[in-house]
Design brief:
alpha/beta; Beta-Lactamase; Rossmann fold; Helicase, Ruva Protein, domain 3; 4 domains; six-stranded antiparallel β-sheet; elongated
Length: about 525
């Protein structure tokens, strides 16, 4: 019967103990530097190594440096730097294969860059180095200095170090993934912060860079984080609802509802039900309980557009909600409490409506906590090209038309127009122009007749002022004679001149009275 070697089981137990201790050490922290030191100390205890190093490749610089070491001073660690392919460590990283140096004194390529072996006899030192791989990529190396043993075998050391390097590689992979995830979150956090910052400085839903619109951005930034009631003022079509959106989505209520309501869009008899809701059976047609805009906006923002057109009876109820944060549904007796921020908008002068008795003064003062005026387009003309480009891009995509630009004459026409309908009118003009364009360019003749200039329409007045006046005078005399059926006396009276002057003017313009007689 063959005898078993009692040393073999003992070696296996020691190896398992070593690997267990290393696995436990690697699980202590997510930071690689925190765990490599304990790993090397455990290896020193089990393997009796003189020195041990973990080197890592910097892929950006191509330099291999010591990440952690056992048995080396700080100065020696700092000196341990290699290029890929340089020295034993550099060759291991380059080839991805282990290297065994039985006696470093016999190996000229052993550089001893750390100079740690100067203190000891090189004849007594063996060096084993194995690669650390993440997938197929070599990211570093694990090396040990061992006491030289004549005719000693290093196969077991290579096998064991390779297992340890594999464990370290797995830890490196986990920590790389975690670090990449952290960095990705940090980048995303920074991006979101920048996006929020940009939204405050220039909300993403509003286009413009003029001084007057920048002032609006500054006010939006200041009021967004508060819960103050905002009154957005401005002409029809300037984008008051966009301002309300920007305030809401820049506020702490951004993840709560944003509900809109237009007081002028609905008949007065259902406005109350729309705002406050109604109970079942409250009136004919109220077949079920219905929540109003206030309840739907609870925790968020309610944007009330055209608040100047709100019926007087409802102004009282709105004032109560602003003051008490509570109301009752139509046909109900239960008091409902809500937390709603109010942003109101109007194109009327509410102070004038108050003076006329058409709007409650107390409600006006409640709404006018933070007035925000949006300038008309004619006061921010430098924004017109930017707005036009944005609308062209939008409607070109919607209509699947390759419209790329707007011609200079067309831009000149846009810049000269007074835009009574403001941004909304400009948007409609650009949508029409995109539909009419056939060559990928918006030309002046694609714009509505209200924007047409004499140059664009080919109707430039030629000649002098006198020739124009003569033409007008001849036309007026001809019309007067036509009306009077060729009676020069009646035509003269109609034009406020004497019959003699009428004769002179007719002769001047070669007008024959008889042509108009019937």
């Amino acid at each position: 019967m063959a005898k078993t070697n009692p040393e073999k089981p003992r070696e296996k137990v020691e190896e398992l103990s070593l690997l267990f201790d290393i696995s436990r050490a690697l699980g202590q922290s997510i930071e690689l530097k925190d765990v490599v030191g304990p790993v090397l100390r455990v290896m020193a205890e089990h393997l009796g190594m003189l020195r041990g190093t973990l080197t890592i490749l910097n892929r950006e610089t191509g330099e291999i440096s010591i990440e952690e070491a056992y048995g080396l001073s700080a100065e020696e660690r700092e000196r341990g730097r290699y290029k890929v392919g340089e020295g034993i460590t550099g060759k291991v990283v380059e080839s991805g294969k282990p290297a065994i140096i039985p006696k470093i004194s016999d190996e000229p390529s052993f550089l001893d860059r750390t100079q740690a072996r100067k203190k000891s006899n090189k004849d007594d030192i063996s060096f084993v180095c194995v690669p650390i791989k993440v997938g197929r990529e070599t990211v570093g190396a694990l090396s040990v200095d061992l006491v030289f043993v004549e005719k000693g075998s290093f196969d077991n050391h290579v096998r064991l170090l390779s297992i340890i390097a594999s464990l370290i590689a797995q830890a490196v992979r986990v920590r790389q993934s975690a670090q990449e995830a952290v960095e990705k979150l940090q980048e995303e956090n920074e991006r979101l912060h920048e996006e929020l910052k940009d939204r405050f400085i220039q909300p993403s839903n509003i286009i413009g860079n003029s001084q007057s619109i920048r002032q609006v951005y500054e006010l939006i930034e200041k009021v967004s984080k508060s819960n103050a009631t905002v009154l957005v003022l401005g002409e029809s079509g300037v984008g008051k609802e966009l301002v309300a959106h920007a305030i809401h989505y820049g506020s702490l209520r951004a993840n709560k509802p944003f509900i809109t309501f237009n007081c002028a869009a609905l008949p007065q008899d259902i406005v109350e039900s729309e705002l406050f809701g109604h109970e079942k059976g409250a009136f004919t047609g109220a077949a079920a309980l219905r929540k109003g805009r206030f309840e739907r906006a609870d925790g968020g923002t309610l944007f009330i557009d055209e608040v100047g057109d709100m019926p007087p009876a409802l102004q009282v109820k709105l004032l109560r909600v602003l003051q008490e944060k509570e109301f009752e549904r139509v046909g109900g007796s239960e008091t409902i409490s809500v937390d709603v921020r109010i942003i109101a908008a109007t194109n009327h002068r509410l102070d004038e409506l108050v003076a006329q008795g058409r709007f409650r003064a107390d409600l006006y003062y409640r709404l006018n906590v933070f007035p925000l005026f949006v300038p008309p387009l004619r006061e921010r003309r430098t924004d017109i090209p930017m707005l036009a480009d944005a609308f062209i891009e939008k409607y070109a995509a919607m209509n699947k038309k390759p419209v790329k630009r707007i011609s200079t004459p067309a831009i000149d026409m846009l810049m000269k127009y007074h835009w009574p309908g403001n941004v909304r009118e400009l948007e409609n003009c650009m949508e029409r122009a995109v539909i009419l364009s056939t060559d990928g360019v918006i030309h002046g003749y694609h714009l509505p007749p209200t924007l047409q200039t004499a140059e664009a329409s080919g109707t430039v007045q030629r000649g002098t002022l006198q020739s124009a006046l003569d033409a007008m005078e001849k036309e007026m005399i001809s019309e007067a004679l036509k009306t009077s059926k060729g009676n020069s006396a009646r035509a003269a009276r109609a034009l406020g001149m004497t019959e003699r002057m009428m004769g002179i003017r007719a002769k001047k313009y070669n007008i024959d009275f008889r042509r108009f007689r019937v």
